[in-house]
Design a protein that fits this description.
CATH superfamily of the largest domain: Cupredoxins -  blue copper proteins
Number of strands: 10
Radius of gyration: 27 Å
Structural class: alpha+beta
Helix content: 40-55%
CATH architecture of the largest domain: Sandwich
Number of helices: 5
Strand content: 15-25%
Strand order of the largest sheet: 3-2-1-5-8
Order of helices and strands: HHHEEEHEEEEEEEH
CATH class of the largest domain: Mainly Beta
Largest sheet: 5 strands, mixed
CATH topology of the largest domain: Immunoglobulin-like
């Protein structure tokens, strides 16, 4: 009877410790960014699901191990059991991991498939990585024809000197990518020089930008706001200085922004023509 109580207490303690660790992980400030798209929410849920699952597996395996070490130690007269060429053991340690893989792979596969479904987008934007900035071309949908370059605006004295760091240190740009809320946005990624990577954590959107290739990802932001990310592919000495900033606005605000951008393009067109004409031919 006493040994049964010891077993129950050992397993319970391991379970409580595991669940406590999982709870602390959920509450930790270094957890994932708050999601604003369904994809990001699904990724977040999948992350927590797998973390809880592996914590329970950890608690179960180590709880059983610690109990076995304690309850079947040599000074109590126990001898090690022999399981050599045991068909039962072989089946158990093959079937259990297989079941664990299935219950992880099933929801993970659904999320990956949803991430790759870029069909029926309301807006398509090409993001081109340069050393070390991003170029954006609106190639489909309202705003088609708009293009600009987005460059870091953090002052050099904050980076190299002792000036106080700003609120969005190394995550601020001169030209934000602007998109409408609740619209599916397809991002085409490519690069002009080396491999870069376009990443906004709150969108659950991340895709490498590879020279000579067009790859795509999508997002549908459900909440207006400003969302920030960074290039996540080591691309040279200023890799840490090419942030990504996306401003999500209402449909009316987006229409106004598109109008302003097209007016600006029309106003700059004569200047660009003159500049091109005055450029010496090689």
């Amino acid at each position: 009877m006493a040994s049964n109580w010891v077993r129950i207490l050992a397993v319970s303690a391991a379970g409580v410790a595991g669940l406590t660790a999982a709870g602390l992980a959920l509450a930790a400030p270094w957890n994932l960014q708050a999601p604003v798209t369904k994809i990001a929410s699904d990724i977040h849920s999948l992350h927590e699901y797998v973390m809880i699952l592996v914590t329970l597996i950890f608690a179960g395996v180590f709880g059983a191990m610690f109990y076995s070490v304690y309850a079947h130690r040599k000074d109590k007269g126990y001898k090690a059991a022999q399981f050599h060429e045991s068909t039962t053991v072989e089946i158990i340690w093959t079937v259990i991991p297989l079941l664990i893989l299935i219950i992880i792979a099933w929801p993970a596969t659904k999320v990956v498939i949803a991430q790759k479904d870029t069909s029926q987008a309301d807006l398509t934007i090409k993001a081109t990585g340069y050393q070390w900035k991003w170029g954006y071309d609106y190639v489909k949908g309202e705003g088609e024809g708009i293009r600009f370059v987005s460059t870091l605006t953090t002052p050099r004295d904050q980076i190299e000197g002792r000036a106080p760091k700003g609120e969005n240190y190394l995550l601020e740009v001169d030209n934000e990518m602007v998109v409408p809320v609740n619209k599916k946005v397809r991002i085409l990624t490519t690069a002009a020089d080396v491999i870069h990577s376009w990443w906004i954590p709150a969108f659950g959107a991340k895709q490498d930008a590879i020279p000579g290739f067009i790859r795509d990802i999508h997002f549908k932001a459900e909440k207006p706001g400003i969302y920030r990310g960074q290039c996540t592919e080591l691309c040279g000495k200023d890799h840490g200085f090419m942030p990504i900033v996306v401003r999500v606005v209402s449909a009316d605000e987006y229409t106004k922004w598109v109008g302003m951008q097209k007016t600006k393009v029309a106003a700059d067109a004569p200047k660009n023509i003159v500049a091109a004409a005055e450029t010496p031919r090689q």
